[in-house]
Structures are given as structure tokens and as C-alpha cells.
Design brief:
Layout lengths: L2 H26 L23 E6 L3 E6 L6 E4 L2 E4 L23 H18 L13 H8 L5 E2 L17 E3 L1 H4 L7 E4 L2 E2 L2 E2 L9 H18 L12 E6 L5 H14 L4 E6 H9 L3 E7 L4 E7 L2 E2 L5 E3 L3 H14 L12 H14 L10 E7 L7 E7 L2 H6 L16 E2 L14 H23 L6 H13 L1 H28 L13 H16 L5 H10 L4 H8 L2 E4 L8 H12 L2 H6 L5 E2 L10 H11 L8 E2 H7 L2 H6 L5
Parallel strand pairs: 1-10, 10-11, 12-19, 19-20
Antiparallel strand pairs: 1-2, 2-3, 4-6, 4-7, 5-17, 8-9, 11-21, 12-13, 13-14, 13-15, 15-18, 16-17
Helix pairs in contact: 7-19, 8-9, 11-13, 13-14, 15-17
């Protein structure tokens, strides 16, 4: 008999013995516990990345695609809607124009900013050790005023979008090239990183959400070739700004899950996605977009709340300033208007082509550019430019050059205003904590006072202290004052658009806390921070010196607003010169990363969203459609990877 056969026989004998013992126990009346049926472990759902769509909505550009795509679909984030009634007045959201430019102080502020830029250019020596010779605009103006355009071969002509079949809406490039004489309103649903809610036509929250749904649905159906009825098999990753508007994010998630029909969604911040896309574990992320610049320190996939900062300027402000400088230098295309969509597109192209941050490039240089507009011949222009190409780019470091007056230019993360669907939010926790702290303090006070009247009086007084309406009212009043303090902060945040969060806020009296916040807020709102100062401020808000050291050694620049030749060296020089002396000894090397892995900085955040879709750790972050229908915005507080 082999060893295996012996073991088999032994096993059979043991089973027979167990059966006999059970029979004896049943005869004696012994009850054994009933073993529950074995429940198999739930298998983790395997998610296919090609069924995940990553959406990165920007103020001027939409990036959307499958997580498995090498590059996303990129198109202007704009929609043209046909008038419902004939004779309806046309409306068009501004592209380069914005509030605060036509004030009486605007031109003076612009001139003062330009003087500071000229002083900065002169004070920094070129790489050969020689100071740069300034070039006045008059030298270029005398040449440019004599220039007349040359007519090119007009075989290739740009055409207006064909609207003969009267489509109800047009999206992307088709919307940009809608003839101004056609009966269409032009809407950009996102402005400076937030939903473009305003008092004009199409400016209600419902209308803006409808525009987003139409644009995204059009791209998914026409360019990603996914039927909208199949979205129930797809999931979505939505990238949102670091400083976000909670009610707006809630409505967008509602639209994606319930209106468009995605099966699940993850909401994540642009800065954290940028670190995923660049491969940096920790970085001070500087996202220079078309209309806003956001900064945030990210450490191991966590965004430091106090370091978040949003500046209300970006690449379009540089474009507008460049146009102003071109006009001073006698810009030969004299019909250029900031109110024209196609002229704005041309100016954006000229900025991207000519502007730089390389101080070694000096003197007057001749350039060429073409204009190709519908129903007009193609023209070739000559233009002579000097320092204008550098001065416009330096507006990001001297934002007074933009000439924006009476507008809030710097925003911080504001406190949540609360939501009726989420009663157990931070307000609830803070209020209950305040009541708990007060009751424990009063209990400690009672224990500390020994009363001579005996135990009964002590018990009665203790009961009275807890249960009397007056004391309960005082307790609620104290809790209410805490809540009132929070309400004051909330209103303050609403009025100012922002509110600071600090570690020790609850220890201060509400009035002192509010006055401290008001002083800080006025300090930031009084003037716009330059990009280099904003980076230093964001890093300085980090809690520990070790974290600050990490941030200085990894400053990650993403977005399309700082894609100028020489930008990396220019920003590095300004950061090193302005950083605190104490950190110059601690930081081994300050590093500015503008093209990680030679990637296009405009796509890094989207790429990070695609990386996020493939991580095992994201399984717990999915918010499913049924969960959203049942629990609503509470799911964002529970599942979001950042503090909601």
C-alpha cells in the first residue's frame, strides 16, 4: 500500500469517527451551533480602461478622451446656439475682453506696470554679462506705419461654417467660425476655471449646464464614436480646479451621472492629476491657463489646502497686453479688434509665435504674419518688433501691466457654505464639537468646585446644570455662537469669494478670527500677486520645513500660458533671487520643471487623469449612479480623494 492510499484510508476513518460522535450527541440531546453557509468573497470588479472617459474642461479648451488614448480630443470649449425667435438680439461672450479694463485708472496702471517691466529688463544682465540695451517703441513705429500688406494666392480660403441646414447648435471650431451675421449666440460655458454664470442671455446655471452637456455629448458621440445610449457601460473621471465651487461641482456630477447616464464617476483635482501625469510624487504645481493661474502644493497625492491659490489672469491677458504693445509700435494690421473672434484667434497665434522670456534676444527684428479670413483675400504683413515680445510675457510677473482695475485678482479656498442634502458636514461636526467642548468644560468646572451642601445638592445642581432650559439655551447659544461664527465666515467667504482655513481657528473668538481673516483677505485683494511671488507664498503656506524643501526642489509648471522660450530659466532665476535666505542653505537645488518627460504641458493633467483610471487605489473612489441617486452630494464627501 502506498503512502497516499494510507492517508486516504486514515481520512475516511476520521470522518466515520466524527459521524459517530454526532449521532451520540444527538441521542444525548446536545445542540451544536449551525455553521453558516460559506459566503464567497466578492470578486473585485475588473474595470477596463477603454471604458473610462477622462474629461478636463478648461476655460478655452476642452480635453476629452478614453483613458487608453495616447492623446485626447482637443477643441475650443465653445457652443453656438441658434436663436429660437427671429429678430432676437445677438449675444456673444467676450474672448479677450473682461471687466475692469475701461476704468479711468486702467491706462495709468498699465503704464506703471510697463515701467516696472522695463526696469526689471534693464537690471538683469544678459548671459555675456552686458546689460540689455532698451529699444523704444518709436523706433519700430516709424517703420511699421509705412507697411502695406501683400496679397497672397487666394486659392485656399477660410470659410464660414455652413448654417444653411439651420442646426440648433454648433460646437468647437464650427462655433468659432459662425458668421456674425447668422442668428446664433456664442457661449463659453467656463470662464476663469468656474462656470460662466452671469446676468446676460444664456448665463443661468441651468443654461450653462445645458451647454456643457451638449458640448460633451457632441464630442463623445461624433469624435469618440460612442453612442449616448451606451454611456451606461462607461465611467467618467472629471478633473476640477483646485479651488472649486461646491454647488457647481455637485450640479456637474449630477448632469454626468443622471442626465448623460455614466455608470460611475471620480472627481479629482487638476494639481494632483498633474503630479500623476508628470511622474512627480511631490511638487508645487503651477497651472498657467488661458484665463487663470492656479497654484497648489501636492505631497504624495494629497493637495495641501492652505497652499491653494488662484490668480485671475493667464495667457489671454498676456495676449491682450501684447496687442496693446503692438498698437504702440504701429501694428500694420490696423483693423484688428478685440471684439472679433477671428482677430482674437490671430492675436493668440502671434503671441504664441513671437513672445519669449529670453533676455539674450535683444534689438529690433523683422517678422512676418498672414491673415486669412472668410470673404477676404489672404494678406501677408511685415512687422518690426523690439522689446514688446519680452514685455508682454513679463506681465505674468508684473500683473499691473494688464491694466485690470476694481477686480478681485487673488482667491483662496473658501469654507463650505453647507448643503441641505448633506446635513452631517463640517458645520455639523464643528458645532457638535463646540457643544461637546463646552459641556466637558462645564463638567470639569463643577467637579472642581466642592459644595458644602451635601451630595443631594450636588446631584441636583448637576442635573440642573445639564437639564435646565436656561442652561440648555446657553449651551445651544454657545453652540449657536460657534455656528454663528461659522456662518459669519461663510457669509464672509461668499461676499469675498474666498475664506481661509487654519488649524487653530476654533480656539479664537469669532470676532478676532473674523478680523484676522479680513486683514489677510484685504492684503491679498489689494493687489495682484506676480507669478513668482505667488509660488513663494504657496510654498510658505506648507506646514513643515521638510515639505517646503520638497516643494522648492520640484516646481512643476503645466498649462499653456507659460510656453515661452526661456521661461524655465527665467522663472528659476526669479525664484532663487526671491526665496527666503534660510531656505537657500537648506534646499540643495531649486528645480523648475516645464516639460516633464518631454510632454506637452497642456496635456499633463489630462494624462494624469488617464493614469488615475489605471490605479488599483482608485477602486474605492468611484461614485456609482445608484449611490448618487440615493445619497447625493454626501458621496463626494465620503469618496472624493480631497477634503470636500
Amino acid at each position: 500500500m502506498t503512502q497516499a492510499e494510507k492517508e486516504q484510508d486514515n481520512g475516511k476513518e476520521k470522518e466515520k469517527e466524527r459521524d459517530k460522535e454526532k449521532e451520540k450527541e444527538q441521542q444525548r440531546g446536545v445542540k451544536r451551533p449551525i455553521a453558516p453557509p460559506a459566503i464567497p468573497d466578492p470578486l473585485q470588479e475588473q474595470i477596463q480602461s477603454n471604458f473610462i472617459i477622462v474629461i478636463h474642461p478648461g476655460s478655452r479648451t476642452l480635453r476629452i478622451g478614453r483613458a487608453t488614448d495616447t492623446l485626447p480630443i482637443i477643441l475650443p470649449h465653445v457652443i453656438a446656439r441658434r436663436h429660437k425667435q427671429t429678430g432676437q438680439p445677438k449675444y456673444e461672450d467676450a474672448w479677450l475682453l473682461r471687466d475692469g479694463l475701461n476704468k479711468t485708472e486702467s491706462n495709468e496702471q498699465r503704464q506703471n506696470g510697463l515701467k516696472m517691466v522695463e526696469q526689471a529688463i534693464w537690471s538683469k544682465k544678459m548671459s555675456n554679462g552686458v546689460r540689455r540695451t532698451p529699444v523704444s517703441a518709436e523706433q519700430a513705429r516709424s517703420y511699421n506705419c509705412q507697411i502695406r500688406p501683400a496679397v497672397l494666392d487666394s486659392s485656399y480660403r477660410v470659410k464660414w461654417t455652413n448654417t444653411a441646414h439651420q442646426p440648433p447648435h454648433l460646437v468647437g471650431e464650427e462655433a468659432v467660425y459662425v458668421n456674425p451675421s447668422d442668428c446664433y449666440n456664442i457661449h463659453w460655458p467656463i470662464v476663469r476655471g468656474q462656470l460662466n454664470v452671469h446676468a446676460g442671455p444664456g448665463g443661468s446655471l441651468t443654461a450653462v449646464l445645458a451647454d456643457l452637456e451638449t458640448i460633451w455629448s457632441h464630442v463623445i458621440q461624433k469624435q469618440l464614436e460612442i453612442p449616448l445610449k451606451d454611456l451606461k457601460y462607461y465611467r467618467c473621471i472629471l478633473l476640477v480646479p483646485d479651488i472649486y465651487n461646491r454647488p457647481h461641482i455637485k450640479e456637474v456630477v449630477n448632469m454626468l451621472l443622471l442626465n448623460m447616464g455614466f455608470s460611475a464617476i471620480i472627481v479629482h483635482q487638476e494639481s494632483v492629476s498633474a503630479t500623476f501625469g508628470s511622474g512627480c510624487s511631490s511638487a508645487c504645481v503651477v497651472d498657467v491657463g488661458d484665463q487663470k493661474t492656479s497654484l497648489c502644493c501636492v505631497e504624495d497625492g494629497v493637495s495641501h489646502r492652505n497652499s491653494r491659490l488662484c490668480l485671475a489672469y493667464g495667457g489671454s491677458d498676456v495676449t491682450r497686453t501684447f496687442f496693446w504693445l503692438l498698437q504702440r509700435a504701429g501694428f500694420p494690421y490696423r483693423d484688428c479688434q478685440l471684439s472679433s473672434r477671428l482677430d482674437c484667434q490671430l492675436l493668440q497665434h502671434l503671441k504664441d509665435t513671437f513672445c519669449h522670456l529670453n533676455q539674450d534676444i535683444s534689438g529690433l527684428k523683422d517678422h512676418e504674419f498672414q491673415t486669412r479670413f472668410p470673404e477676404a483675400p489672404a494678406l501677408l504683413y511685415q512687422v518690426r518688433l523690439g522689446d514688446e515680445k519680452l514685455q508682454a510675457s513679463m506681465g505674468l510677473f508684473y500683473p499691473t501691466t494688464f491694466g485690470i482695475v476694481g477686480q478681485k485678482m487673488t482667491s483662496l479656498q473658501y469654507r463650505s457654505q453647507g448643503d441641505s442634502e448633506d446635513p452631517h458636514d463640517e458645520h455639523y461636526l464643528l458645532a457638535t464639537q463646540s457643544k461637546q467642548d463646552q459641556s466637558s468644560k462645564s463638567a470639569a468646572d463643577r467637579k472642581g468646585i466642592s459644595r458644602p451642601g451635601g451630595g443631594l445638592d450636588g446631584e441636583m445642581s448637576a442635573q440642573g446644570g445639564i437639564g435646565e432650559p436656561s442652561d440648555l439655551g446657553r449651551g445651544c447659544g454657545s453652540g449657536g455662537s460657534g455656528a454663528g461664527g461659522m456662518k459669519g465666515e461663510t457669509e464672509f467667504g461668499t461676499a469675498q469669494g474666498e475664506c481661509l482655513m487654519g488649524a487653530g481657528e476654533l480656539e479664537e473668538p469669532p470676532s478676532a478670527n473674523l478680523s484676522r481673516k479680513t486683514a489677510i483677505m484685504s492684503q491679498f485683494e489689494s493687489k495682484a500677486l506676480g507669478l513668482d511671488k505667488a509660488i513663494l507664498h504657496s510654498i510658505d503656506c506648507c506646514a513643515s520645513d521638510e515639505t517646503k524643501r520638497k516643494m522648492y526642489s520640484s516646481i512643476l509648471v503645466v498649462g499653456g500660458g507659460l510656453m515661452f522660450p526661456g521661461a524655465q530659466e527665467f522663472l528659476l532665476h526669479r525664484i532663487i533671487n526671491k526665496m527666503p535666505p534660510s531656505f537657500r542653505r537648506l534646499v540643495d537645488n531649486v528645480e523648475v520643471i516645464t516639460r516633464p518627460k518631454d510632454m506637452d504641458p497642456r496635456l499633463i493633467s489630462w494624462k494624469g487623469g488617464a493614469v488615475l483610471a489605471c490605479l488599483d487605489t482608485t477602486q474605492e473612489m468611484w461614485i456609482h449612479q445608484r449611490e448618487w441617486q440615493r445619497f447625493g452630494v454626501r458621496m463626494l464627501r465620503e469618496r472624493a480623494a480631497f477634503v470636500w
